[in-house]
Amino acid sequence: MRDVWGLAESTRRRRCRVVGEFLVEHFGERPISMTTVKTTSIRRFILGEQGRGPAAVAAIGVTIACYLRFRSMSGDRTNELKAAIPRVARWRLASLPEVLTDTEIDELLSSFDQSFPSRLRAYAMVRCLIDLGLRSGEVVKLQLDGIDWANGTINLVGTKSRRTDALPLPPATGAAIAAYLREERPATSNRAIFVRHVAPYDEPITTKSVKRAVLAGYQRCGWTRTGVHILRHSAASRLLRAGAPMKEIADILRHRSLDTSAIYAKVDLTNLAAVALPWPRSAQ
Fold this sequence. Notes:
By secondary structure, the chain is mainly alpha-helical. The protein has 13 helices and three strands; from the N terminus they run αααααααβββαααααα. The chain has helices at residues 9-27, 39-47, 54-73, 79-83, 102-110, 119-132, 136-139, 171-183, 207-220, 230-241, 246-253, 258-262, 269-275, and strands at residues 147-148, 153-156, 165-168. A three-stranded antiparallel β-sheet has the order 1-2-3, with no helix packed on it. A hairpin with an 8-residue loop joins strand 2 (153-156) and strand 3 (165-168). The protein is globular.
């Protein structure tokens, strides 16, 4: 999962937990032998005794399929078991991402004008999420050496795509990072941009710190939202409304396929309204 697929640590940990439950349920303390596993037990484990929702079935099914591929590479015959994994119906580009409006984004950013501990760090991190469309895991991996102040770019290393990407650094984002570095970042030899503000200082923050900063901003705005990824969706939606071509949006978000970015076209209500046909027999 790490060396071949490049999965994030949190994903690997989650999948290992599911595989552990699968092995304990089927073998207990006995040696593992895939020849004793029945296709019916595979389906029963994935679907759950009480019945799981589509998202849970899909996630557990992918995890068990991953483990069975590993067993196959180790010499076990798992084709029948893999064929027994339930498939969840998913329609391409059927989901609709939730995004913030420009007014809501301004309100969220304004909530950081209040005084609270680590305010400059929280504000700079949220600007990275909103302006650059970064994932939480990418924010914590940002490095001081990755910023080219003269040319206005920032490098992302160790991202989900396992490659180095250079992104333009908007002036507002750069100003927020610079203010944090000058006024709030503790003295440390660590080269991560965002570091801990309590001992031990020589360590970067974790994704939990990013999430806490975002959720605290939501609370100051009086919102009940709980997701951080909405800021990445909002970044793509803002680019689309500004007239950026889909290829440019895909490049900024580091999507390998344009299809992954195409879903944001569905929330561009202004352009959709321009091409929408009137409802039959309607007055408008």
